[in-house]
Amino acid sequence: MNKLELIKKICEKSGQKQNEVDATLKAFGDVIIEQVRDAGEDIQIPGVGIFKQKVNPAHTGRNPFNGESIEVKESTTIKFQVSSGVKKVSE
């Protein structure tokens, strides 16, 4: 599903206009980045999951083209942990 399809589905369920939903999704993404990646706060969406900050430590990596060792700097990213209610267990 692409962004436009997602927006249309949300419009069907909420009765909002596409431009309103688009603005809300943009704001949602901005808040996730600001609060989780930059501020280190967890954001929990009940019944869906939790956005958490993940710090990837500095390490020595390998250049895949020539095999030389390179130093990779520490980086911060976002991890999403799915709620147990979302997981489907096959029987």
Distance between the termini: 27 Å
Strand content range: 25-35%
Helix content estimate:
25-40%
Main beta sheet, described?
3 strands, antiparallel
Helix/strand/pairing class, anyone? alpha+beta
Question: What does this molecule look like?
Answer:
With about 90 residues, this protein is of the alpha+beta class. It is about 35% helix and about 30% strand. The chain has two helices and five strands, in the order ααβββββ. The strands form two sheets. The protein has a three-stranded antiparallel beta sheet, covered by helices on one side. Strands 3-4 form a two-stranded antiparallel sheet. A hairpin with a 6-residue loop joins strand 3 and strand 4. Helix 1 crosses helix 2. The radius of gyration is 18 Å and the shape is elongated. The mean pLDDT is about 95.
Layout of helices and strands, plus pairs?
Elements: H1 3-14, H2 18-38, E1 43-45, E2 49-56, E3 59-62, E4 69-72, E5 75-82
Antiparallel strand pairs: 1-2, 2-5, 3-4
Helix pairs in contact: 1-2
Brief account:
The protein has 91 residues and is an alpha+beta fold. Helices cover 36% and strands 30% of the residues. A hairpin with a 6-residue loop joins strand 3 and strand 4.
